[in-house]
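Dear colleague,

Following up on yesterday's call, I've attached the two folding results inline so they're easy to grep. Please treat them as preliminary; we haven't cross-checked anything against experimental data yet. The first protein's sequence and C-alpha cells come first.
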Amino acid sequence: MAMSENAKKLRGSSWAENARTIAYALLIALFIRAFFFQPFYIPSSSMESTLLIGDYLFVAKYSYGYSKHSLPFSPPLFSGRIAGDDPERGDIVVFKQPTDNHTDFIKRVIGLPGDTVQMRAGVLYLNDKAVPRARVDDFIYRDPAGNVRRIPQYRETLPNGVSYITLDMMRDSVWDNTGLYIVPQGHYFMMGDNRDNSSDSRVPDVVGYVPFENLVGKAEIIFFSANGSASFWEVWKWPWAIRWDRIGKWVE
C-alpha cells in the first residue's frame, strides 16, 4: 500500500516538473521573441530578388527599440517606442500594416521623415534627385510548370551608399509613374524591391506612410529556405527542395 502511494506521489511530482519545464521554456521563447529575434516567413514575391518566397529569416527586435508591436498580438500596454533607434535608408524592415495594425509586412526603407519620394518612368527620385541605377544580369524566374522568364534587374544606390537589386517586370506600369509623396514626421516610406509587384507606401489604402511605432524589427539573416517543390511529408524530396546556398545569407 505504501509502495502504491509513493508511486502515485512520484508520478504526480514528475507531471508537475514536466509542466514547469514546459512553462519555463515557453516563457524563455516568448522573451527571446519579444526582445531579441523573431522568425519571419516570406510569403510573397514583393521583395524579389533580394528575398524569395520560401525564405525564413530572423528579425532583430532590438534594432529600433520596442513598441507595443514588439509583443505578440500588439497589446496596448504603452504608446510610442522605448530605446528607439531610427532606421536607415536601405534597411529591410518588418512592420505592422498601418491600415490594420495587425498584418506583418516586409519592405525596404526608402524615404525618411521630411523626404519627398516619386517614381518617374521607372526611376526613383528622392528629394527631386534621381537615385542612380545600373542594369545588371536578368533575374531568371521559373514557374511551377517549369516555364522560364527573364526579368530585367537594376542595381540601385541610395544617397547613403546602400546598394541593392530591383526588378522591373513591366515597362510603364501603373507604379512606374507616381505623384509626389511627402513623408510626414515620425513616418517612413517603404518600397518592395520588386517594383511592379509590391503593395507598399505607394498604395495609401494598403500601406501608405508607416509610423515609427509600427516597426517590428530589422531583417538580418536567412536561416532556412525552400523552393516549394516538396511537401512536408515528402521527405525524399527535401534535399532538392532546400535552397542550400541561401541558408546563412545576410539580408542586405
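Below is the second protein, in the same order (sequence, then structure):
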Amino acid sequence: MEEQVNQITDLSAIAMEYAWEYGPKVVLAIITLVIGLWIIGMVSRGFEKVMKKRNFDPSLTPFLKTLLSALLKVMLFISVIGMVGIEVTSFIAILGAAGLAVGLALQGTLQNFAGGVIILLLRPFKVGDVIDAKGYMGTVKEIHIFYTIVNTFDKKVVYIPNGTLANSDMTNLSQEEDRRNEWKFGIAYGDDVDKAKTLLRKFIDEDERILKEPEPFIAVHSLGDSSVNLVVRTWSKAGDLWPVYFDMNEKVYKQFAKEGLNIPFPQMDVHVHNQK
C-alpha cells in the first residue's frame, strides 16, 4: 500500500513538473493560435477587398485568397508547434511523410488543385462567362482551388471539380462576341419557294439585332419526305442569339399561314376494309 502511495506521489510530482514547464508554453501557444487565426481572417478579407478595389480579375480573387489563407495557416501551426517545444525540423519531416501518404490517398483532390491552376493559367473561361460542361449550362460564378461554381439558367448552383473541367470537353459560349443562328423551315410541295425566301428575307431585314455582316444566308437545304426544307443562317451579338431565334420561329409560324405557305407535319392515312 505504501509503495502505491509513493508511485502516485512520484507521478504527481512529475505531472506538476511538466505542468510548470510546459503549461505556460501550451497556454501561450493556444493564445497565439486563436489570435493568429483571427489575424489571418482579417488579412484574407483585406486582401480580397484590395483586389476588388483595384479591379483585379474576379476569376483569380477567390483562388488567391484561399491559397494565401492556407499558406498562412500552415506557417502559424508550425510556429505554434515550435512554441510548445516540439522540434520543428522533426515535425516538418513527419509532415512531409504524412503529406506523401495523404497525397497518394487524395489523388483526385490533387488533380482538382492542378486543374484549378491550369484553368487560371490557360484561361479557357473566366468569371461571368457562360459555359456548357458536364451536362450543365450556366454562368461561371466563382473559380476556387478545387472546384468551379456555375449558376445554371434554372437557378441551380453546380460545383464542378476543376480536374474534370481541365481534362474534358467544355464549350465557352461567351468567348466570341458574335454568334450564328440557324433555322430549318419546311414548306409543302407545290408552295412558292421564292415567296418563302422573300418573306424570310423580309423578317431578317426588319430585325435590327441581326447583323448585316456576315451576310445572312437563305437556301433550299433538302427535299424531305413531305416538305421542301429551307435553311436560314444569320449572325447577331451573343446576347441577342436566343431572342432572335425565338422571334424568328414565331414570325414564320404566324406569317407563313397568312401568305398561303403551309408548314407540313407528319400525317398517316388509315384505310379500313370491311370484310364479310
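For the second protein, one point worth flagging: The helical segments are 2-53, 61-84, 88-105, 107-122, 162-166, 193-206, 241-258.

Best wishes,
A.L.
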